[in-house]
Amino acid sequence: MNNNYCCQCGKPRRNLTEPLRDALFIDDLISTLQHRKQHPDLPAGTNEISPQMIAHWGVRRNGGTDEQMHICDGCLLLAVRAIHKSVSSVLAELDSVVNGAARSSKSS
Ligand SMILES: [Zn+2]
C-alpha cells in the first residue's frame, strides 16, 4: 500500500509530526489522592491507600499511530472530533453533578 495517500479516503497525506503522533494516544496514570484529601472524613476501608486511575484515549488504525500510519489529517480530524463530542458530553454531565452540587450546597 502506498503510504503517500490516506488509506481511508485516498487523499494525499503528510507525515505526522512526533508531537501530534504522541498526542493521538494518551494513556496517563492519574493519582486521585488530592481529590480524596478534599474529603478527609471518609470511613476507614472505603478507599485504596494509593488511589490511581488510568486515563486513556486514542486514535488508532491497525494497532498504532506510528510514522507509517497512512491516514490523512482530515480523517484524523474526524476521529478526534468524535472523541471530543463524547468527552464533552461526559464532561458536561460530570461537571454538573460534581460542581453543580457543590454550588448548590454553598448557596443554601
Ligand atoms: Zn483520509
Any idea what the shape is?
Answer: elongated
Number of alpha- plus pi-helical segments: 3
Question: What helical percentage do the residues reach?
Answer: 40-55%
Give the number of DSSP strands: 2
Spans of at least 5 consecutive residues whose pLDDT stays below 50 are: none
Biggest sheet details: 2 strands, antiparallel
Can you describe this structure?
The relative contact order is 0.18. Helices cover 43% and strands 13% of the residues. The longest helix has 35 residues. The termini are far apart. It has a two-stranded antiparallel ribbon. It is elongated, with a radius of gyration of 20 Å. The protein has three helices and two strands; from the N terminus they run H-E-H-E-H. With 108 residues, it is of the alpha+beta class. The chain has one domain. It binds zinc ion (ZN). The site of zinc ion has 8 residues, from helix 3.
